[in-house]
Amino acid sequence: xxxxxxxxxxxxxxxxxxxxxxxxxxxxxxxxxxxxxxxxxxxxxxxxxxxxxxxxxxxxxxxxxxxxxxxxxxxxxxxxxxxxxxxxxxxxxxxxxxxxxxxxxxxxxxxxxxxxxxxxxxxxxxxxxxxxxxxxxxxxxxxxxxxxxxxxxxxxxxxxxxxxxxxxxxxxxxxxxxxxxxxxxxxxxxxxxxxxxxxxxxxxxxxxxxxxxxxxxxxxxxxxxxxxxxxxxxxxxxxxxxxxxxxxxxxxxxxxxxxxxxxxxxxxxxxxxxxxxxxxxxxxxxxxxxxxxxxxxxxxxxxxxxxxxxxxxxxxxxxxxxxxxxxxxxxxxxxxxxxxxxxxxxxxxxxxxxxxxxxxxxxxxxxxxxxxxxxxxxxxxxxxxxxxxxxxxxxxxxxxxxxxxxxxxxxxxxxxxxxxxxxxxxxxxxxxxxxxxxxxxxxxxxxxxxxxxxxxxxxxxxxxxxxxxxxxxxxxxxxxxxxxxxxxxxxxxxxxxxxxxxxxxxxxxxxxxxxxxxxxxxxxxxxxxxxxxxxxxxxxxxxxxxxxxxxxxxxxxxxxxxxxxxxxxxxxxxxxxxxxxxxxxxxxxxxxxxxxxxxxxxxxxxxxxxxxxxxxxxxxxxxxxxxxxxxxxxxxxxxxxxxxxxxxxxxxxxxxxxxxxxxxxxxxxxxxxxxxxxxxxxxxxxxxxxxxxxxxxxxxxxxxxxxxxxxxxxxxxxxxxxxxxxxxxxxxxxxxxxxxxxxxxxxxxxxxxxxxxxxxxxxxxxxxxxxxxxxxxxxxxxxxxxxxxxxxxxxxxxxxxxxxxxxxxxxx
Length: 812
Hints:
alpha+beta, five-stranded antiparallel β-sheet, Rhopdopsin 7-helix transmembrane proteins, elongated, Pdz3 Domain, 18 strands, 5 domains
């Protein structure tokens, strides 16, 4: 983009030099005392003792005959004038828009007055050169700031419009270019208003909107370009030009209104002060010409007088310069640096130009016979090709010899960029960044605050919730604390520490951290070059720090996974120790069990507790949680049940006490279901209580029709850990010889087949009837039947616990 602007500025300068040469040459030709535009329509320009204007020839008459020669085109008109001698007289015939014709006799050919050449050409021309110089200067020192390109565009098109203003009625060589320039003045002013002194938020969010004003300019310029060559409608171009004038007037008004708005809004103090100064200068500079541009819209036509309107235009660049100088948009070192660089650059290019001229003269003129125009074009390309390399080389030499601090800072920060690309350790990267910035900028202190809750402990003056984080994330600009209008606790802390400069580290629209510096040890201010270097460094550092943060998070996650795996293994080991190692061995009874957790750690448990007098207590339970919490609650519940069973005998009392002890300790929304029973092996009498667990089934012997009886044991209550005052009821049952008691968890009834249908309680009862009708151990056959129901692809969703007590038949 910079190369494009350099080429555009160079081309504009070449065109303006050509305009001066052409204007001087034209002023020496015989002059009929009036000027005509592209379609031979007389302009409203006037001067002292202009013979044609004194004779009555005026705008908007169109010349149709010179002497005895009819003229329809510019070429015919110029050829007719060249036939006339100075001080000779001729006849001029014109036509009006309404068709009326007028003939003017004895129109004298005179020399173009020097005073009028100064007033109508040199004065606008010099103002145009000033604008071109200002646009090039501001763009060079502020090319990375919002609006610098729009301002450069505005200055370029203004320079072209003023430099070729006289050409419209003289040689008319650049009328199309002037037409385009006038239309683009409105677009560039509108774009400048949106982006200077600071871009509006809408433009920052949607950068392509900045091209819309230029698109409107082109839409206005295209009809005008056709109109200036429309000889059949020679006055049509006037209306199309007036639309461009109106757009330029709109651009002026829009620029002034937005500047006024900036002075009223809560902008940074520097932005408001800049806006006030530029607003005052713009009002003085643009209001007179805005009135002239807008007057035709209401039917009022004001005579164009360059000596009156153009001096006001100079106030605008002066106001820009005052705003920049007073509020440090540049600094003195930078001005000296640029003055030395461009002074030497001018000398080098001048020598190169002289050398190239001689070389081209020798080679191409003697051997290839190039025309003067082609030689000029060739020399221009040679100078443009040498500009960038020569400037960079000279700047490097000047920085080394006269601006050592800037050169050293640039070198140090360049070296840091290599470290940023290779370092992934967050703490090392953070310390290296602060160290290098201290070495390069020489602040009293430098500190870095990083965002993110997963980062190591850091001393930071800005809390994670402070609005300053979001503000700097949006602006993304290196900013002095005095330029901020925010009032936040973080800013107060930074001011108390003595911070002067804030450098936000933003990557992919995420703020990674804030680097803040104290004042310089030398007491000097931070220059625009310093800010530019720090801004470049911030972009590189933000990316590197973001990558280092990601690596740290991945390392922390890997460590956390290792810890979780260890905890899981430990919890699984704890759970395995809670299950009975062997089943009871009682005469006349057979015990069997099966346990398979859905995860590495389950929440279900069962146990057998031998009691006095040969009785046997047994239990089955299920914790509502999964994973490690369920194993911990299961271990605690089992321990409480075992301890309470040594103190109390009644199942309902045991469950009530365990519930009271367990309830304050369990986590929120975790509960335990439990079935607890006491068996008298000799009589088969069973006393039990149920705390919300699945009711067991009593299985009888086979009936004459081949089906076993299946009976659900009644009784239930609240799960453990829900209500501290819960009470439970006791129930009794008898197991006869040949009968069994089947206990299970809800993983059985919630098993699903390939069609996602659950087995359900009814399905379990059906399986139990079929299985109990045939001899053999119940649990293995039930698991086989369950696998037939679910299919081989069954993915177990819940723990599966089965316990069976069988009272063997009496031996005959």
